Amino acid sequence: MTAAVLPHHIAIVMDGNGRWAKRRFLPRLAGHKQGVDSLRRCAKACAERGVKVLTVFAFSSENWNRPTDEVDGLMNLLAGALAKEVPSLARDGIRLFFVGDRASLSAKVQAGLAQAEQATAHNDRMVLNVCFNYGGRWDIAQAAAKLAAAGQPITEGALNDAMALAHVPDPDLLIRTGGEMRISNFLLWQSAYSELYFSDKWWPDFDEQALDEAIGEFQRRERRFGKISEQLVQSPS
Protein backbone atom coordinates (compact mmCIF):
# COMPACT_ATOMS: atom_id res chain seq x y z
CA MET A 1 0.00 0.00 0.00
CA THR A 2 1.20 3.50 -0.85
CA ALA A 3 1.98 5.42 2.31
CA ALA A 4 1.00 8.73 0.66
CA VAL A 5 -2.64 7.65 0.28
CA LEU A 6 -2.97 5.58 3.42
CA PRO A 7 -5.80 6.92 5.60
CA HIS A 8 -4.30 8.68 8.61
CA HIS A 9 -7.46 8.13 10.67
CA ILE A 10 -9.90 5.22 10.28
CA ALA A 11 -13.20 5.13 12.17
CA ILE A 12 -15.35 2.00 12.45
CA VAL A 13 -18.94 1.27 13.45
CA MET A 14 -18.46 -2.30 14.72
CA ASP A 15 -21.86 -3.75 13.84
CA GLY A 16 -23.12 -7.31 13.63
CA ASN A 17 -21.97 -8.98 16.85
CA GLY A 18 -25.50 -10.01 17.84
CA ARG A 19 -26.40 -11.35 14.41
CA TRP A 20 -23.10 -13.26 14.26
CA ALA A 21 -24.02 -14.96 17.54
CA LYS A 22 -27.64 -15.59 16.54
CA ARG A 23 -26.55 -17.35 13.34
CA ARG A 24 -24.54 -19.72 15.54
CA PHE A 25 -27.36 -20.19 18.11
CA LEU A 26 -25.26 -18.44 20.74
CA PRO A 27 -26.25 -15.69 23.22
CA ARG A 28 -25.66 -12.15 21.97
CA LEU A 29 -22.92 -11.61 24.54
CA ALA A 30 -20.88 -14.36 22.84
CA GLY A 31 -20.91 -12.19 19.74
CA HIS A 32 -19.67 -9.20 21.71
CA LYS A 33 -16.84 -11.30 23.15
CA GLN A 34 -15.87 -12.33 19.63
CA GLY A 35 -16.08 -8.66 18.68
CA VAL A 36 -13.39 -7.82 21.25
CA ASP A 37 -11.11 -10.36 19.55
CA SER A 38 -11.83 -8.72 16.20
CA LEU A 39 -11.01 -5.28 17.61
CA ARG A 40 -7.70 -6.58 18.94
CA ARG A 41 -6.87 -7.99 15.51
CA CYS A 42 -7.96 -4.83 13.70
CA ALA A 43 -6.00 -2.50 15.98
CA LYS A 44 -2.85 -4.56 15.45
CA ALA A 45 -3.38 -4.61 11.68
CA CYS A 46 -3.92 -0.84 11.54
CA ALA A 47 -0.76 -0.18 13.53
CA GLU A 48 1.24 -2.52 11.29
CA ARG A 49 -0.01 -0.74 8.16
CA GLY A 50 0.92 2.69 9.47
CA VAL A 51 -2.52 4.03 10.34
CA LYS A 52 -2.04 6.66 13.05
CA VAL A 53 -5.56 6.87 14.53
CA LEU A 54 -8.27 4.21 14.90
CA THR A 55 -11.63 5.23 16.37
CA VAL A 56 -14.27 2.59 17.10
CA PHE A 57 -17.91 2.80 18.19
CA ALA A 58 -18.09 0.40 21.14
CA PHE A 59 -21.25 1.52 22.99
CA SER A 60 -23.62 4.25 21.88
CA SER A 61 -25.74 6.43 24.12
CA GLU A 62 -28.76 4.64 22.58
CA ASN A 63 -27.48 1.19 23.58
CA TRP A 64 -28.79 1.73 27.12
CA ASN A 65 -32.19 0.85 25.61
CA ARG A 66 -31.09 -2.74 25.01
CA PRO A 67 -32.11 -5.57 27.39
CA THR A 68 -30.64 -5.09 30.86
CA ASP A 69 -28.77 -8.40 30.82
CA GLU A 70 -27.02 -7.45 27.58
CA VAL A 71 -26.04 -4.01 28.92
CA ASP A 72 -24.75 -5.55 32.17
CA GLY A 73 -22.83 -8.12 30.17
CA LEU A 74 -21.26 -5.42 28.02
CA MET A 75 -20.12 -3.52 31.11
CA ASN A 76 -18.55 -6.66 32.58
CA LEU A 77 -16.97 -7.42 29.23
CA LEU A 78 -15.44 -3.95 29.16
CA ALA A 79 -13.96 -4.40 32.63
CA GLY A 80 -12.46 -7.75 31.66
CA ALA A 81 -11.12 -6.43 28.36
CA LEU A 82 -9.40 -3.53 30.12
CA ALA A 83 -7.59 -5.86 32.49
CA LYS A 84 -6.59 -8.21 29.68
CA GLU A 85 -5.85 -5.92 26.74
CA VAL A 86 -4.30 -2.76 28.19
CA PRO A 87 -0.88 -4.32 28.96
CA SER A 88 -0.52 -5.56 25.37
CA LEU A 89 -1.67 -2.22 23.98
CA ALA A 90 0.94 -0.51 26.11
CA ARG A 91 3.64 -2.85 24.80
CA ASP A 92 2.55 -2.29 21.20
CA GLY A 93 2.88 1.48 21.49
CA ILE A 94 -0.86 2.18 21.23
CA ARG A 95 -2.33 5.07 23.20
CA LEU A 96 -5.87 4.57 24.44
CA PHE A 97 -8.58 7.19 24.80
CA PHE A 98 -12.15 6.57 25.92
CA VAL A 99 -14.48 9.11 24.34
CA GLY A 100 -18.02 9.69 25.58
CA ASP A 101 -20.18 10.74 28.51
CA ARG A 102 -18.74 9.16 31.65
CA ALA A 103 -21.17 10.76 34.09
CA SER A 104 -23.71 7.91 33.83
CA LEU A 105 -21.09 5.17 34.21
CA SER A 106 -20.37 3.53 37.54
CA ALA A 107 -17.45 4.78 39.61
CA LYS A 108 -15.69 1.45 39.05
CA VAL A 109 -15.98 1.69 35.28
CA GLN A 110 -14.89 5.35 35.29
CA ALA A 111 -11.80 4.45 37.34
CA GLY A 112 -10.98 1.61 34.96
CA LEU A 113 -11.16 3.90 31.94
CA ALA A 114 -8.93 6.50 33.58
CA GLN A 115 -6.36 3.88 34.61
CA ALA A 116 -6.25 2.43 31.09
CA GLU A 117 -5.66 5.86 29.60
CA GLN A 118 -2.91 6.60 32.10
CA ALA A 119 -1.18 3.26 31.46
CA THR A 120 -0.84 4.02 27.74
CA ALA A 121 -0.33 7.80 27.91
CA HIS A 122 3.33 7.58 26.88
CA ASN A 123 2.67 5.71 23.61
CA ASP A 124 2.82 7.38 20.20
CA ARG A 125 2.72 4.62 17.57
CA MET A 126 -1.07 4.83 17.14
CA VAL A 127 -4.05 6.36 18.95
CA LEU A 128 -7.00 4.06 19.65
CA ASN A 129 -10.18 5.98 20.51
CA VAL A 130 -12.90 3.79 22.00
CA CYS A 131 -16.22 5.64 21.84
CA PHE A 132 -18.15 4.40 24.86
CA ASN A 133 -21.51 5.87 25.87
CA TYR A 134 -20.98 8.19 22.92
CA GLY A 135 -23.32 9.87 20.45
CA GLY A 136 -22.58 12.39 17.74
CA ARG A 137 -25.40 14.67 18.84
CA TRP A 138 -24.21 14.46 22.45
CA ASP A 139 -20.74 15.47 21.29
CA ILE A 140 -21.99 18.58 19.48
CA ALA A 141 -24.25 19.52 22.40
CA GLN A 142 -21.50 19.11 25.01
CA ALA A 143 -19.11 21.20 22.91
CA ALA A 144 -21.67 24.00 22.58
CA ALA A 145 -22.44 23.83 26.31
CA LYS A 146 -18.74 24.03 27.14
CA LEU A 147 -18.34 27.18 25.04
CA ALA A 148 -21.50 28.75 26.45
CA ALA A 149 -20.38 28.10 30.02
CA ALA A 150 -17.06 29.79 29.26
CA GLY A 151 -18.78 32.74 27.59
CA GLN A 152 -17.06 32.03 24.27
CA PRO A 153 -18.65 32.69 20.88
CA ILE A 154 -19.99 29.52 19.28
CA THR A 155 -18.10 29.44 15.98
CA GLU A 156 -17.19 26.53 13.74
CA GLY A 157 -13.56 26.65 14.86
CA ALA A 158 -14.43 26.93 18.54
CA LEU A 159 -16.87 24.03 18.32
CA ASN A 160 -14.27 21.92 16.56
CA ASP A 161 -11.77 22.56 19.35
CA ALA A 162 -14.36 21.67 22.01
CA MET A 163 -15.34 18.31 20.50
CA ALA A 164 -14.55 15.12 22.38
CA LEU A 165 -12.19 14.06 19.57
CA ALA A 166 -10.35 17.36 19.28
CA HIS A 167 -7.08 15.55 20.08
CA VAL A 168 -7.04 13.86 16.65
CA PRO A 169 -7.74 14.98 13.06
CA ASP A 170 -11.08 14.06 11.48
CA PRO A 171 -11.39 10.52 10.09
CA ASP A 172 -10.38 10.00 6.47
CA LEU A 173 -12.24 6.70 6.19
CA LEU A 174 -15.37 5.65 8.07
CA ILE A 175 -16.22 1.94 7.88
CA ARG A 176 -19.46 0.31 8.96
CA THR A 177 -19.73 -3.45 9.11
CA GLY A 178 -22.88 -5.58 9.30
CA GLY A 179 -24.51 -4.59 6.01
CA GLU A 180 -26.33 -1.49 7.28
CA MET A 181 -25.84 1.76 5.32
CA ARG A 182 -26.05 4.46 7.95
CA ILE A 183 -23.68 5.98 10.49
CA SER A 184 -26.09 5.81 13.45
CA ASN A 185 -25.18 9.01 15.30
CA PHE A 186 -21.42 8.33 15.08
CA LEU A 187 -18.97 11.22 14.58
CA LEU A 188 -21.61 13.46 12.99
CA TRP A 189 -19.37 16.53 13.15
CA GLN A 190 -16.08 14.83 12.38
CA SER A 191 -17.24 12.75 9.39
CA ALA A 192 -18.28 15.72 7.23
CA TYR A 193 -15.64 14.83 4.63
CA SER A 194 -14.91 11.22 5.53
CA GLU A 195 -15.04 8.58 2.82
CA LEU A 196 -17.79 6.11 3.75
CA TYR A 197 -17.35 2.36 3.25
CA PHE A 198 -20.02 -0.22 4.06
CA SER A 199 -19.13 -3.89 4.50
CA ASP A 200 -21.59 -6.80 4.50
CA LYS A 201 -19.34 -8.68 6.93
CA TRP A 202 -20.43 -8.88 10.55
CA TRP A 203 -17.84 -7.34 12.84
CA PRO A 204 -16.49 -10.65 14.26
CA ASP A 205 -15.72 -11.69 10.66
CA PHE A 206 -14.03 -8.42 9.69
CA ASP A 207 -10.42 -9.57 9.29
CA GLU A 208 -7.17 -8.19 7.87
CA GLN A 209 -8.24 -8.91 4.31
CA ALA A 210 -11.50 -7.00 4.81
CA LEU A 211 -9.54 -4.08 6.26
CA ASP A 212 -7.21 -4.06 3.27
CA GLU A 213 -10.20 -4.09 0.90
CA ALA A 214 -11.63 -1.04 2.66
CA ILE A 215 -8.29 0.78 2.51
CA GLY A 216 -7.93 -0.20 -1.15
CA GLU A 217 -11.34 1.30 -1.94
CA PHE A 218 -10.31 4.48 -0.10
CA GLN A 219 -7.15 4.71 -2.21
CA ARG A 220 -9.19 4.53 -5.42
CA ARG A 221 -11.34 7.53 -4.51
CA GLU A 222 -10.67 11.18 -5.27
CA ARG A 223 -11.09 13.49 -2.29
CA ARG A 224 -11.89 16.99 -3.52
CA PHE A 225 -13.10 18.84 -0.38
CA GLY A 226 -15.30 21.13 -2.47
CA LYS A 227 -12.76 21.66 -5.25
CA ILE A 228 -12.76 20.22 -8.78
CA SER A 229 -10.38 17.57 -10.12
CA GLU A 230 -8.35 20.09 -12.14
CA GLN A 231 -7.56 22.06 -8.99
CA LEU A 232 -6.22 18.94 -7.32
CA VAL A 233 -3.90 18.31 -10.27
CA GLN A 234 -2.61 21.88 -10.07
CA SER A 235 -2.16 21.74 -6.28
CA PRO A 236 -1.75 18.16 -5.00
CA SER A 237 -1.58 19.35 -1.37
From TrEMBL:
> What does the record give as cofactor?
Mg(2+)
- Per UniProt, what is one Pfam family of this protein? Prenyltransf
Cite the InterPro entries for this sequence: UPP_synth-like, UPP_synth-like_CS, UPP_synth-like_sf
Which residues hold Mg(2+)? D15, E195
Q: What is its EC number?
A: 2.5.1.-
Q: Which NCBIfam families match?
A: uppS
Task: Describe the family membership recorded for this protein in Swiss-Prot or TrEMBL.
Answer: Belongs to the UPP synthase family.
Q: How does it assemble?
A: Homodimer.
What is the recorded function of this protein according to its Swiss-Prot or TrEMBL entry? Catalyzes the condensation of isopentenyl diphosphate (IPP) with allylic pyrophosphates generating different type of terpenoids.
Quote the HAMAP family the UniProt record gives: ISPT
Protein name (record): Isoprenyl transferase
- State the organism named in the record: Comamonas sediminis
* Gene name of the encoded protein: uppS
